[in-house]
Amino acid sequence: MAKLTPEDKAEIISHMNADHADAVLAYVHYFAGQREFSEATLVGIHEEYMTIESHCSDSSLALPHVTHLDVAFSKPISNLKEAEKMMVTMFFEAKNALASQN
Questions:
Q1: Distance (Å, whole) CA 30 – CA 89
Q2: Phi then psi for 23, rounded to 5 degrees?
Q3: What angle do the packed helices 80-101 and 6-19 form, to 10 degrees?
Q4: Beta strand segments in 2-38, E
Q5: Is the model more confident about 62 or about 30?
Q6: Does the predicted TM-score (pTM) go above 0.70?
Q7: How confident is the model at residue 66 (pLDDT cuts 50, 70, 90)?
């Protein structure tokens, strides 16, 4: 199986943080089950998971202010097209599930 290149990873991270911060936060809220986090930044992408730095601005909660969470993909990705398809699918799954919980 092919692997993501360092350039692919940098492009995904940059694009997601610049254009899809709402999706990154939705991954944290739904897939990591961490609804109390208010900000999220994609900091790493791998073939099997993404690493997200999450921030909690509510100091009354017994949470670290910043934490790193790994969110698994349902199947490994190996190129930009697969990453895009996976992340879009995950966003809509999270968005729909979170909307039905409200």
A1: 13
A2: -70, -45
A3: 30
A4: none
A5: 30
A6: yes
A7: confident
